Amino acid sequence: ASPTSSCFVTGMKRCCCRAAPLLALLGIARGRPVGSMRGGGGTSFLSNMCRLRGGQHGAAAGETQIFETVVSSEVTRVATSPFEGQKPGTSGLRKKTSVFLQPGYLENFIQSLFDSLPDGELRGATLVVSGDGRYGNAAAVQIICKMAAAHGVARVWVGRDGLLSTPAASCVIREREGGVACGGVILSASHNPGGPDADFGIKYNVRNGGPALESLTEEVYERSTQIREYAIVAGLPDVDLSLEGRHVFVDEKGGAPHFEVEVIDPTEDYVALMASLFDFDALRSLLRRPDMSLVFDGMHGVAGPYARAIFGALGVADEALLNCIPSEDFGGGHPDPNLTYAAALAKLMGLTGQPAGGEPPVLGAAADGDADRNMIVGRRFFVTPSDSLAVIAAHAHALPWLARQGGLRALARSMPTSGAVDRVAEELGLPLFETPTGWKYFGNLMDSHLLGGADLSPLLCGEESFGTGSSHIREKDGLWAVLCWASILAHHNVDTPEGQLVGVEEVVTQHWRRFGRNFYTRYDYENVDAAAAEEIVERLRAMGSSFRGAGYGPSEPQLLQDGFALATIDEFSYRDPVDSSTTSQQGVRLLFADGSRIVLRLSGTGSVGATVRIYIERYQPPGDEYALLANATDALRPLVDLALHLSQVRELTGREAPTVIT
After folding, report:
1. Which of 31, 250, 283, 507 has the fewest CB atoms inside 10 Å of its own CB, making it the most exposed?
2. In this model, does residue 646 exceed pLDDT 90?
């Protein structure tokens, strides 16, 4: 049904009694509604609307606009049939854009998701729906809003232009109006390319702001294999996502509001949270120094608006914020912040030769498509994600919000991440958790106290795949990590004379001298034939069986080439200490007597084929300056050669070289 006219013409602005006090620190408007559709906070939603009918026309500066449309609220049930393979991976469902564009494909998955949520969860609820702006994002937002209305959702929060970074979505779920949202649908394929011929993705974050656990995603998949119809309010018109305000839909039969889409400032809640976590005055002082410089590469992803809001408020010039306008296809690039795909930043930072225009900046950083990953680089110096996590953990005392909460209570890393942070945990006397890859496992630890366990927050955690975060939200957080590094530099340079600035390399080198160095690299073979990838894993499993059958083990390691003594071959499994759930087959590990490791696992973040990842790590204790400062490639070469020989990855995939080396 088409929307009909009423006394409120579609698009007419109305005044609302929603206060919008300024965040003086940042100059960003912030406000809360007088009432809510769930009946909390004062007057009811309906009484607010009745009062507005007699109010003044237009909207004063800083007030929320209301756009009211009279429509049919009739729910249409559309017959459908299952699509093969709607099984979420490590972080949601990711497929080629063309797959998602099939009629009914998105609708089927959303219906399966809504059906899998607890009974009554959506009725009268607030739901967050937004994404990273990739091709298809805006159209998907419109469809999901119409389906949300059909399932009783009272209000949907959407970032302006359909944009919310993944960390900001977690923040909005947790923080906005005191955390009333029941969850959020996030449209992103993260660091994967975007565009008609590239990738699209979708995942669900639950009430705590973190990714759904495997029990929910498994149910979604099961329902997707049996689906026969989906429900949608077809009469709802598309919302103008460029207009911030409350887009209210009134039923044509009764005149009562039945659904609302509120388009919000996508940066508002997140920037306010960052301002509460960090000492922005100290960061301004650092960035004003003549010998300090920063450059940030948004990689044409959704991080751009957040970087401009935050770093702009800290005095960083626009020309230092590169590629910070979101693009549907990420400027034709691959928005993965590593040395291969962020090659322009690597060159600017002097990692691949002397850049034009003099000395490289002191601190460089990049974020991926949805702004949850980060890369940190110094002047001619690359910081591995594993080292980044360890350095941040060792500097917890320099991070204001951690100091206010009495310091860290726990640290965590994914299994493939190097053991650098383990050594920090040991020295600080903190519990260290080794989890499977996937941020949802960290979320359980962060909420342990709510589930009858120990209070482990504040907790810092990270993954070697450029993901770093803490319990301030329930997602990894790219810009948060950059602000941590800026805070660490500010801490080291409080009294440093001009011209003697302590930079990124000096901070990391000091860390190695204290804790030792975990030499580390990762080889990625992307879009490998799935059967070939499985054959590699099966080869290593068979090797493990033969190893144990021959009586080898930690007490009697097997001597291999170049003197490496193999002590263990196993597959990593994890028993969650909070809910006792078990996750198995998370990667084959080859553990050596000297603490070195080779890990091989298949990644679940691609959209086609398989990604084979080989992780190689060797520990160098402190005390030998020459060995600590050795070239990483040289230090790891014998172990890399052994990993390639044992896995037979070149022979089984036909690839002479990996797609990406980190």
Report:
1. 31
2. yes
